Structures are given as structure tokens and as C-alpha cells.
Amino acid sequence: MATKPNTVKTRICIISDTHTRQPFPATDTNHAFRNPLPTADILLHAGDLTSTGRITEYESTITMLKEANAELKLVIAGNHDTSLDSEYYPRAIKEKFLPVIGHRFGGEDLVKVKELWTGEELGKAGIVYLEEGVQTFELKNGARFTIYTSPYTPEFQNWAFAYERDQDRFNPPKPVSAFQAPNPIPDWPAVDIVLTHGPPMGVLDRTLSDEPVGCANLLKAVKRCRPRLHAFGHIHEGFGGVRRGWRDEGAEKKEEEEMVELDWDRIRKEGCVRVDLSEEGGKGLRWGGETMFVNAAIMNVRYNPANAPWVVDLDLPVGDG
User: Residue 249: which residues within 8 A CB-CB, separation 6 or more?
Assistant: First the structure.
């Protein structure tokens, strides 16, 4: 791999699948998901901001994000955030899909929904709503990083932001392919962080029945991209973290994995799962050789907010300025 560029230690707080739920009071030390959320340079929310995509639910989640102590708060939608999928939502309302049963007649005002997430007020609070694609950001600590984001997951029971499993949304399309991916994930070393709602196949994606339900094409893309961090949620049972080493094509050595041990007494005491992958911390991530995967679903399988935010210390590249 190429010589490691100049970097700066950056703290990232990761949450997902909050489904409108607010953090518990600061005094409730039986729950790690409590106020205040951990202080960080960057806050990532990997989608499922709401239960069904009502405006009142978005407003509640925005209140939580405003109160979070982070310079930059990057947010994507998930399959439950129905009214943020402008292609899906009118059809779901018209055909009375189960995910939108109970929405007011005619559905939510999509213009108001989009304005809610793109307004000047959110920008002042450091909140940036991201659709599928690549963006680059700079932080006050000098870090300049590139992130790929996507809210899309394999189709499941008529929820939003869905694609068929045989569609490859994340890799450059072949000229003869019927489906042409509009925003494929770039090759290494273009992207530092990948933020998707769903997991890649075989990575923190097992259901209660022990079935892996992640996306195989997403895994293929992440192998090409080799980001420093890939954060997601969606599969509540998959909550956890794993540090995976990449091997070069044709190498006989198997890709190595190191699962993060979850000490729940410590997690509840500190209000988060802490992982230090900085050089300063002594276990620096090998850029291009390893990726840290985090499933940060706050809700467990019973939709009880029993899981914890993640705090990952990571070396990010320093900008030219």
C-alpha cells in the first residue's frame, strides 16, 4: 500500500436505528443510550431516524441531533424513513403499503420533509443530511475526509429505499447490465468512511435465526474501497464491531478479523462503546489494509433502546490548507 499520509486523531460518535427514541436521562445509568450523547468531532447517524417517516418524528430526532456535542453531524435515511424516499412514498400512500398505514390522508408533505432536513437552521447546528453519493468535509482539527453514503438496503416488506438483491447498487456497472448503478462506491483510496443503512454480507448482519442478510454486492464494493471505517445499522441483532484485515487478490492467507469485546458494565458506565484505532492509542488502523466495521443500531430486536453509541478514535488525513 502507499505511504501513509499526514493524519490527525479524530473522534467519531456513531448511532443508528434510533426510530425517534430520545436518549434516556443522564441519571439513568442502566442505559448507555442516554444524555448527553458522547462528545465527538463527528457524529454519524446511519438511518432509521423514525418509525414510519412522519414529520413529527423527524422533528423529534432533529432535536436530539441539535443537542449532541459534535462539530459535524452527518445523517442518512433508512428504510423506515419513508417520506424521505420521494420515489417510493407517493406509491406507498396510494397503494396503502403497511409501512405507511396510519399516515394522514394524502401522506406527509414531501416538500416540507425535504425542507426540514435542508434548512439553514440545521446547518447552523452542524447537521448535514446526505443522500447517496460522495462528499468531502473539513474539520477544525485540520482533518479533511471523504465519505460515501447510501440509505438503500435490499427489499424487505415494502419499506423505503429498497433494491432487489440481484441489483448491484454499489459497483461500477457493466455496459450490458440492465441496472446501471447511479452512485457506485469508488475504489481505494478515494473514500475514508462508508456510511450505509445496511450491512455488507457476512459482517454484523445475522438475524435471530442466525441468517446473514447483508448485501453481497456491498461487501464486494467495500473490499474495493477499503475505507478506514464502515458504519451501518438496520439489523438490530447485529449490534457490534469488528476490525477486518484485507488480503490482496490471490493471497492464500485468510482475511483476519478481531471482534470488539462488549463489556456491558463498562459500556453502561461510560455511555458508549469506546474503540481507539489511532496511532496514539497504540493500535493504529493500517490504511488500505484494514477496515473497522460498526453496527451501531440503538434498538435491539424488540425495539428496546438497549444498545449503545459507539465512539471510535481514528486517524483521518489532514487537509492541504
Answer: none
C-alpha cell at 81: 424513513
The C-alpha cell 447517496 sits at 132
DSSP codes, 133-201: EEEEEE-TTSBEEEEEEE--EE--TT-SSEE-TTS-SSSPPPTT-SS--SSPPPPTTS-SEEEESSPBT
14: helix, strand or coil:
strand
Find how far residue 150's CA is from the centre of its chain.
Answer: 8
pLDDT bracket for residue 250 (50, 70, 90):
low
Residue 149 burial (CB count, 10 A): 26
pLDDT for residue 1: 42
Beta carbons within 10 angstroms of residue 71's beta carbon? 16
The full 3-state SS of 40-55, as one line of letters, equals EEEEEECCCCCCCCCH
Q: What's the first-to-final CA gap in the chain, in angstroms? A: 25
pLDDT (average), residues 15-25:
98
Output the DSSP codes for 274-286: EEE-STTTT----
pLDDT digits (tens, 9 = 90+) for 110-125: 999 999 999 999 999 9
Total-model pTM: 0.96
Asked if 44 contacts 119 with a C-beta cutoff of 8 angstroms, the reply is no
pLDDT of 105: 79
- C-alpha–C-alpha distance, residues 178 and 304, integer Å: 41
Closest CA to 126 of 209, 70, 83, 180: 70
Residues 197, 133: Cα–Cα separation, whole Å: 13
Closest CA to 241 of 216, 212, 273: 273
Residues near 298 by beta carbon (within 8 Å), at least 6 away in sequence:
15, 16, 17, 18, 19, 21, 33, 233, 305, 307, 308, 309
